[in-house]
Specification:
239 residues, 3-stranded antiparallel sheet, 7 helices, 41% helix, 17% strand, elongated
Length: 239
């Protein structure tokens, strides 16, 4: 088993709701090995696993040939339950995987109701119900050796989209504040236009000038900066 991990600081991640999952023993052991290694190198830091962003490549031995499946972590957890069981009910999978019911239904839809069906659902249908049962598709066949199984996408409402955008900005405001302080600490005195220009060079994500202005105003309120008495468009760093 090979494992590749990307570690980013909190400010670089958008805000994701916590997603719980009971990892198979093999995957959990690898996570713990990396956690111990990382924390031994970086004391005082914390690791938060973003389970919803993880993906895996599974080698599966079907009766009609071996295939590699490119799947999400949730799809992986569900499929690995069928290593020791021929048939499982929705409730069995929910209890064994620890995946929240709504997310689990999306995951099972992608595995049993989509274009690539590695599981067979009973009774047949496009939707997944609490009373459904699933078994491994012994008749699965595909020409390709490596097959990507896409997740079922959830459509966000306008309100949910706006809320997501706001959470992303809230997560990034600390990074903006740090950039402003860093620039002003070096330059001591700077005009609004030049400060905005410097921030755009340093920040690696898109942001509106109005949002930058809000963060500058917040730093003035907290006495990190002050305006020049003779020119309100000039900022002075306060040590």
């Amino acid at each position: 088993m090979d494992m590749l991990i990307h570690v980013l600081t909190q400010g670089y991640w958008p805000s994701y709701p916590p997603t719980e999952v009971k990892l198979p023993a093999e995957l959990n052991a690898y996570q713990e090995v990396f956690r111990e290694f990382y924390l031994s190198k970086h004391s005082g830091r914390r690791l938060h696993w973003q389970n919803s962003l993880a993906h895996c490549v599974l080698k599966v031995n079907f009766p009609k040939g071996t295939k590699e499946l490119v799947v999400s972590l949730f799809q992986t957890v569900v499929l690995m339950l069928f290593q020791d069981q021929d048939q499982l009910s929705f409730k069995d999978i929910e209890e064994a995987s620890g995946i929240e019911a709504k997310e689990l239904k999306r995951t099972l839809q992608s595995l049993a109701c989509g274009k690539v069906r590695v599981l067979v659902k009973s009774p047949k249908g496009r939707d997944v119900d609490d009373t459904d049962t699933f078994h491994f598709n012994q008749d699965f066949s595909e020409k390709l050796f490596r097959i990507k199984i896409n997740n079922i996408q959830v459509k966000e409402s306008l309100e949910e989209n706006a809320a997501t955008t706001e959470r992303v900005f809230q997560d990034r405001q600390y990074q903006i504040d740090a950039a402003v302080v860093r620039v002003m600490k070096t330059r001591k005195t700077l005009s609004h236009t030049l400060l905005i220009s410097e921030l755009y060079k340093q920040l690696q994500f898109p942001i509106k000038p109005a949002d930058l202005k809000k963060r500058i105003e917040s730093l003035i309120d907290r006495e990190y900066l002050e305006r020049d008495e003779n020119d309100a468009k000039v900022y002075i760093y306060l040590a």
